[in-house]
Amino acid sequence: MENLYLMMAPLFxxxxxxxxxxxxxxxxxxxxxxxxxxxxxxALILPFTMxxxxxxxIVLLTSIYCAGTYGGAITAILINTPGTPAxxxxxxxxxxxxxxxxxxxALGMATVSSAIGGIFSVVxxxxxxxxxxxxxxxxxQPEYFALAIFGLTMLASISDGSPIKNLIAxxxxxxxxxxxxxxxxxxxxxxxxxxxxxxxxxxxxxxVGLFAISxxxxxxxxxDQVFKRVTLKAVKLPSIDDYKKTWKTILRSSGxxxxxxxxxxxGGTVASLIGYAEAKRWSKKPExxxxxxxxxxxxxxxxxxxxxxGAMVPTLALGIPGxxxxxxxxxxxxxxxxxxxxxxxxxxxxxxxGIFGSMLIANIMFFVFGFFGAKIFARITLVSNKLxxxxxxxxxxxxxxxxxxxxxxxxxxxxxxxxxxxxxRYGFSLVPVIIGLILGELVEGTLxxxxxxxxxxxxxFFTRPIALTFFILSFIxxxxxxxxxxxxxxxxx
Length: 493
Fold this sequence. Notes:
The protein is an all-alpha fold.
């Protein structure tokens, strides 16, 4: 009962309701605009959250996350261009249905299934995050080291990029985390005589550079792009017949999305594809998929929005991001002095349940906004890229500079923007870099402290049951993508 009261606390705070309103609105706009999305938007807004208290800052980021994930469906249905990668599967049936003159029906189903999936995932978050945190109470330094290694090896199986390239990107992130003073000896490392680097590379310049600036450079080739648009009269709530066709699909995809979201480094894109595939597999009319199936929209949208709450479970309970956007949220937690993990559940329950409640409210808000304002949000795509991207560049520079009033941070942002651009061009995922940067300090610190405990004996790691379990899971995470790729190659032959 007490926890329920804590969850509902945002409803009684005018400040949090205002933050939720603007976060949801901003998230929808970002989701609608192809090339942006909640990850880039979260990275853009991250520097400006420093003016807010920790709870308001994280509520802002999570509401952007929830609303932005849904927002991608609007452009996926109306212009056959997913606003976010997680909405890619929605294009398969959403746009064909819109071409038949049923854009309102398609958007109505996307809105309802997204809201149900999102609310379902919050329930999963409320129940499973504390359980996972209780398990983490048994962790010592060796267990945290093994967990961090597991988080890094999971990079091999994320959706985009090859396993080897993802691991290289993750290792690069770990390397970046070693810049600055050695936490045990206080000796400068890899600073090249630049005093500003003694405290290490800041999260914000790296995140903004990798996501916002690199996306701007990538989109610079599409300045004159014109989208072909389907006319939308109004969003229609699904009919009774539509509910009869899709309710099992929505529930199934909500469960799938929540489970996929919990897996570190997976996220909504994988969830939506699996949700769509399972909807087709269990459908009585699989032949309609790809031609305008209402079940296909429901399966994809319920799954990708359900992944939002699922991805927050390892983020809050273990400090391992469940998706690209939760990596940005985790960065927000760290820069606000909040360290995720089991202690957070014991020491700051009001903070955690405030996040849970705000995510629930955000899902309800984007349902209302989407139902009544989808037509308006769709017109946002008319904004010229020639105007949009210079504005984003200006916001990125101002936000990064304002953090420490340091031009070094701006140069770091621009440098990582260029690095991110070339990583995208050569097939490297950006997410592993952020995860490597976040987990790098944890890996190094727990390894060195563990070796002190074990008197330098590496074999002692394998005498700890929990640590050994994570090492075994890490090994499986490394070899599974290789086995899967070999099987695919054999099938092609």
